[in-house]
User: Fold this.
Amino acid sequence: MENQTVNEGKTAAIIAYITIFGTIIAYILNAGKKNSFASFHIRQMIGLFLLSMVNKYVVYDMLGATAGWIFGVFLFFLWIVGFIGATQGEEKKAPFVGEYFQKWFAGI
Assistant:
């Protein structure tokens, strides 16, 4: 990826990882220019947010607090991988699920 593209989208990519409100702000910031680097990280964070909702409303309720906690730690690890990738200017996909996020949210 071009260095200029990364530099232009880095702020929005980092903001995307600061809660769902940051993701919405990053989406709005990226709506006009459609920076590919920022879009990549916005898609990753939307996917992580949806997985966290699945954890909260499905895993905790059906499998219990221990399973929900373990899945939550796994999601936190995925968030760390994405956030570090955004700060370093790299497109690091979340392990196991990042490829799916890129396909499912390709319109973003």
About this structure: The first helix runs from residue 3 to 16. The chain has a mean pLDDT of 94. Residues 10 and 49 are 20 Å apart (CA to CA). The chain has five helices and no strands.
